[in-house]
Specification:
97 residues; elongated; alpha+beta; 2 domains; 3 helices; two-stranded antiparallel sheet
Length: 97
């Protein structure tokens, strides 16, 4: 079995009639997602993925926003919190009517 730097052999598998290959022996689980890449030699690389909602993508694309969010989470974990009246104020609407 050919090995690449940083990888170690796990198993030898055979593609089925629909060209599918089982990768459970390599640690894959039901509903895991992977990016699939190939090189000129035909090696296949599976890179684990985690999908996020598009509305959260801004946090991962904006370094300044992400750093601010992490600072806020660290402050909250240390108990450095305060009430923001504009967020928690009752708007006066009575939903029970």
């Amino acid at each position: 079995m050919t090995t690449f730097e940083g990888f170690h052999p796990v198993a030898e598998v055979t593609a089925d009639e629909r060209a599918r290959v089982a990768v459970g022996k390599a640690g894959a689980h039901k509903n895991d997602r992977y990016a699939v890449s190939t090189n000129a030699e035909g090696a296949i690389l599976l890179t684990p993925l985690a999908s996020i909602p598009k509305r959260e993508l801004l946090v991962w694309e904006n370094d300044e926003l992400r750093a601010s969010l992490f600072r806020g989470l660290a402050d909250a974990a240390e108990g450095n919190v305060r009430r923001l009246e504009w967020v928690t104020a009752d708007d006066g609407d009575d939903d029970d009517a």
